[in-house]
Design brief:
Layout lengths: L7 E4 L1 H8 L3 H12 L3 E3 L2 H8 L7 H9 L3 E2 L20 H14 L2 E4 L2 H7 L4 E4 L2
Helix pairs in contact: 1-2, 1-3, 1-4, 3-5, 5-6
């Protein structure tokens, strides 16, 4: 019996927006990941951040991405930095930090348009830059 390794990709907000705008590269990554039986991770903070940039007429495309059986939406874990401690308050960096943490923890690439920002958070992050 041959064992199959599972893998996947982590999407940041730019990748989610690119997918809903039907950008070829983001679409290809999603469908190749699905065809391979791998996982797409869209952190909840990323989903919230991306939603603010997606017009109402493209929400059905977002629903397709989130509704795929291969898509996982991990919640933001406040226990890492409880409110009142450094890093505990919600900030613009939450989504970037969340996506970086998910990608590094899984050793999966993050589809992003801002690799420099993610590498500032954690240089171990593997990035797949959007064209």
């Amino acid at each position: 019996m041959r064992l199959r390794a599972f893998g996947g990709v982590v999407f940041d907000a730019a990748a989610v927006v690119a997918f809903t705008n039907r950008a070829d590269y983001a679409q290809a990554i999603v469908w190749a990941t699905v065809d391979a039986g791998n996982t797409i991770v869209v952190p909840s903070t990323v989903l919230a951040a991306a939603r603010t940039h997606i017009p109402a007429d493209r929400l059905d495309i977002l629903a397709v991405l989130v509704g795929l059986p291969h898509t996982v939406v991990p919640a933001f874990d406040r226990t890492v930095h409880p409110a009142g401690e450094p890093g505990g308050a919600c900030s613009a960096a939450d989504a970037a930090g969340h996506v970086t943490r998910e990608a590094v923890a899984r050793t999966w690439p993050c589809l992003t348009s801002r690799p420099r920002r993610l590498r500032q958070i954690d240089p171990r992050v593997i990035v797949d830059r959007l064209p």
